[in-house]
UniProtKB/TrEMBL annotation, chain A:
The lineage of its organism: Bacteria, Bacillati, Bacillota, Clostridia, Thermosediminibacterales. The keyword Membrane applies. It comes from Fervidicola ferrireducens. CDD domains: TM_PBP2 (cd06261). GO terms for cellular component: plasma membrane. The chain crosses the membrane at residues 59-79, 91-113, 119-138, 159-176, 188-208, 220-241. Keywords: Cell membrane, Membrane, Transmembrane, Transmembrane helix, Transport. This is Bicarbonate transport system permease protein CmpB.
TrEMBL record, chain B:
Keywords: ATP-binding, Hydrolase, Nucleotide-binding, Transport. PROSITE patterns: ABC_TRANSPORTER_1, ABC_TRANSPORTER_2. It is an enzyme of class 3 (hydrolase). This is Bicarbonate transport ATP-binding protein CmpD. PANTHER family: ALIPHATIC SULFONATES IMPORT ATP-BINDING PROTEIN SSUB (PTHR42788:SF13), TAURINE IMPORT ATP-BINDING PROTEIN-RELATED (PTHR42788). Residues 5-239 form the ABC transporter domain. It comes from Fervidicola ferrireducens. Its EC number is 3.6.3.-. GO terms for molecular function: ATP binding; ATP hydrolysis activity. InterPro entries: AAA+_ATPase, ABC_transporter-like_ATP-bd, ABC_transporter-like_CS, ABC_transporter_ATP-bind, P-loop_NTPase.
Length: 254, 263
């Protein structure tokens, strides 16, 4: 409750500062729209915004799912083979610092302008942090627990599903959290930079369109939605998931 | 009667460093069905390695292991091992959940209701009836060790492999666990191979004792004592002296591995 109150205070103060900056600076509506203008824009365009949000989230959901499966497979292979682990560590060292969006030109070369390129960028952005977290998680599983699993006759996929996954759940959630943030940034950037979704939609595309048409309040409205989604996912999805699983497990591990 | 467990020329070497070595070399012995076999030796003599090979966690560099006449190599619930360390329960499952999971994994067709009833039975066997809904972090070390026993028995292993199972307990807790183990052994008739470096533990529990030195099986002793065995019996003291002299002598000789093998 207290936290919600402090957040509301923060939002209110920001709005106040924003509005007073505009009045004192005397900026035009085109450069810095007023709070009321942005709010109106948010309200008027709610359907359009909702549609574009849904579109972005759909791409991210799909991209994250692909990245998740890919990272899981790679992490399991790393556990199984020393040589593969060495290879992946090197690849990761090279790829990790590369911002996902930097791969967009290549993606466009390979897949053309469109949804496929955006998804490729999302997968690329999310897969390395996911893999890093998963592998760290797998390595932190006590040897005794893996061996109890093997002793019971589990191996391969079954060992992964019944022992490795639950044992490294905190790390997996941590990975998803980073992966989600990267994917969200990457998708907005990819949609925005070249309108790479090819005019199909997405919040990035929405920003691009609004700027192109000089509808600055619309640009701000889009940005607010982007921030809001980021916060919502962070505070609702991940907090709830963590409360359900990790908090309990953390106690358990101590 | 044909031997139940047969270990033939088992060799496992973890890599060499000059004359020193690590592992076990050409170990052969047999265990009868229902027997309680003790394995004793100084730390680092290869006791854990032996158990891990039998359990299938290590692939031997030579020799083989037969269970009831059939060669075994991969891990399986027919040889259930309790390792050292208190982190053997799955922390995301309750105590009862751990046992149910073990049974379900080994025997997929039995209904969960039935497994839960069985889990309660095994918890009762080890005196943890009231703790089934607790999570591993809520249990003491002694309780965890009881839980390991309950889980191990719940999957009905043909051989139970115990690696210094009560090592982390104080003397009183240790004796209580030994008594519990004997009682469970009497009830289930499971074949047990117990590894220890504690002479008393070995004498109190085992029918027969294998003495290991530097990776080789040096002596096999039949335990002459009748059960129950008490520390202050004359025969007990005498057997204790005999066993400790053997262990002492092996230490003084301070064999290198090469010596031990060449002999
Ligand atoms: N995975 C391993 N890699 C290398 N050396 C090992 C490994 N496991 C055990 N050893 C070595 O093998 C020898 C026997 O170990 P172990 O079987 O654990 O002895 P014990 O259980 O009797 O104390 C020791 O010298 C130990 O350091
Ligand atoms: Mg050992």
């Amino acid at each position: 409750m207290k936290r919600i109150f402090s957040k509301l205070t923060l939002i209110f103060t920001s709005a106040l500062l924003w509005e007073s900056a505009r009045i004192i600076g005397g900026y035009s509506e085109l450069l810095l729209p007023g709070v009321s203008g942005v709010a109106r824009s948010l309200w008027m365009e709610k359907i359009e915004l909702l549609k574009n949000t849904a579109f972005s989230l759909k791409l991210i959901g799909f991209g994250l799912a692909v990245a998740f499966v890919l990272a899981m497979i790679l992490a399991i292979l790393c556990m199984a083979s020393r040589a593969f682990q060495g290879l992946i560590t090197d690849v990761m060292a090279v790829m990790h610092p590369l911002p996902g969006i930097a791969i967009l030109p290549v993606a466009i070369l390979w897949f053309g302008i469109g949804v496929k390129s955006v998804i490729f960028v999302i997968v690329f952005s999310a897969v390395w942090p996911l893999l890093n977290h998963f592998y760290t998680g797998f390595r932190s599983i006590p040897k005794n627990q893996l061996e109890v699993g093997r002793n019971l006759g589990l191996s391969g996929v079954k060992l992964a599903v019944y022992v490795m996954l639950p044992a490294s759940l905190p790390h997996i959630l941590g990975g998803l959290r980073t992966g989600w943030a990267r994917a969200w940034q990457a998708s907005v950037a990819a949609e925005l930079v070249f309108g790479a979704a090819g005019g199909h939609g997405g919040l990035g595309w929405y920003l691009y369109k609004k700027r192109f048409m000089m509808e600055t309040p619309g640009v701000f409205a889009g940005m607010i939605v982007i921030i809001a989604i980021g916060l919502l996912v962070e505070y609702f999805v991940f907090s709830i998931l963590e409360n359900l699983t990790v908090k309990k497990l953390k106690q358990v591990i101590d | 009667m044909a031997p139940f467990v047969r270990v033939e020329n088992l060799t496992k070497i973890y890599g060499r460093t000059n004359e020193a070595f690590a592992g076990i070399k050409e170990v052969s012995f047999e265990v009868n069905e229902g027997e309680f076999l003790g394995v004793i030796g100084r730390s680092g003599c290869g006791k854990t390695t032996l158990l891990r090979c039998i359990a299938g966690f290590e692939s031997p560099d030579g020799g083989k292991i037969l269970l009831d006449g059939k060669s075994v190599s991969r891990p399986g619930p027919d040889r259930f091992m309790i390792s050292q360390g208190l982190d053997q329960l799955f922390p995301w499952l309750s105590l009862k959940g751990n046992i149910v999971f073990a049974m379900k994994t080994v025997n997929k067709r039995v209904a969960i209701k039935e497994l839960q009833r069985k889990a309660e039975y095994y918890l009762e066997l080890v005196g943890l009836s009231e703790w089934g809904d607790y999570y591993p972090y809520q249990l003491s070390g002694g309780m965890k060790q009881r839980a390991f026993l309950a889980r191990a028995l719940s999957v009905n292993p043909r051989v139970l492999l115990l690696d210094e199972p009560f090592g982390s307990l104080d003397a009183l807790g240790r004796k209580a666990m030994q008594d519990l183990l004997l009682q469970l052994w009497g009830k289930t008739g499971t074949t047990i191979i117990l590894v220890t470096h504690d002479i008393d533990e070995c004498i109190r529990l085992s029918d027969r004792i294998l003495v290991f030195t530097k990776g080789t099986l040096r002596h096999t002793l039949l335990n002459p004592l009748t059960r129950p065995r008490e520390y202050d019996d004359l025969a007990y003291r005498e057997f204790y002296r005999k066993l400790s002299r053997i262990l002492e002598r092996d230490k003084i000789m301070n064999l290198t591995w090469a010596d031990a093998v060449l002999r």
